[in-house]
Amino acid sequence: MTSGWSAFIIAIVVINIVGSVWLLWWTARRRSGDPAADSTSHYWDGDITEYNNPMPRWWINLFYLTIVFGIAYLVWYPGMGAFTGRGGWSSAGQLKTDQAAAERLLASHFKKFSDLPIDQIARDPRAIATGQRIFANTCSTCHGSDARGGRGFPNLTDDNWQWGHTPADILQTVQEGRQAAMPPFASALGDPSNVAATAVYVQSLSGMKVDPLLANIGKQSFSGICAACHGADGKGNPAIGSANLTDDYWLYGNRIEDIRAAIEQGHNGHMPAHKEILGETRTRLVAAYVYSLSHPKK
């Protein structure tokens, strides 16, 4: 928060407190010339009279006490701009405390899984049920409630794994995240016809019917530029997250327009790290659930 905004908030708070005190004081006292309580001249039904009695002193004092309480609250807790309060409390600190307590409770319930490999945790129905709930709350936003993903978000229920499918690979993906970078190659390939030919060759790698002449031209560009990451055979490299171009799985689509766009503009896929968000126990449980999706228990 900037010093200007802090000063503005402090001024607003002080004005409200002073204004409340003044309003109580001004409305509670009787002034000379005020009519007596029974002299309002307001009558109904002949025998009902409106009086103008002041509020009881104890009631007024309660209002003053609430103002004193509010001032004490602002001294102890943050509420005066950038002033953090004498108590040292913060919403971020409270959140971390609550998260740590929840993590300890969860860890105590699943202590027996703390040192087990992910594939062994995946055999326990209770662990998988908990991992599924964590997945639904955290991962389904991108991968879908059924974990089948969508355009740009991997399907976690099949056997196609861009970064590897071993238990260690999956746990590393969940805990540390992944950063996939397909740089744009429009300038490197130069002529748009070279881009088109390369896209045609990429289609041919997965067995699609294409123009063989264009594919042969595109093969030369692929070998000189794309093979560095995807390999000479186009099977990719899980160590760096380069996609396998020889199967029928296409994260961004297999139309010629989709492949051309990938070559010309590149892609920047990001899987955020979740260990700091979910903690050790939760990430292991959700990794076990993800592992179970493509490795059904036999």
Automatic annotation (TrEMBL):
Pfam families: Cytochrome_CBB3 (PF13442), FixP_N (PF14715). One of its GO terms (molecular function) is heme binding. It is found in: Cell inner membrane. The chain crosses the membrane at residues 7-25, 58-76. Binds 2 heme C groups per subunit. Its main location: membrane. Residues 126-206, 213-294 form the Cytochrome c domain. GO terms for cellular component: plasma membrane. PROSITE patterns: CYTC. Heme c 2 binds at residues 182, 226, 229-230. GO terms for biological process: oxidative phosphorylation; proton transmembrane transport. Its cofactor is heme c. Keywords: Cell inner membrane, Cell membrane, Electron transport, Heme, Hydrogen ion transport, Ion transport, Iron, Membrane, Metal-binding, Oxidoreductase, Repeat, Respiratory chain, Transmembrane, Transmembrane helix, Transport. It comes from the Bacteria. Pathway: Energy metabolism; oxidative phosphorylation. Component of the cbb3-type cytochrome c oxidase. C-type cytochrome. Part of the cbb3-type cytochrome c oxidase complex. Belongs to the CcoP / FixP family. This is Cbb3-type cytochrome c oxidase subunit. The lineage of its organism: Bacteria, Pseudomonadati, Pseudomonadota, Gammaproteobacteria, Lysobacterales.
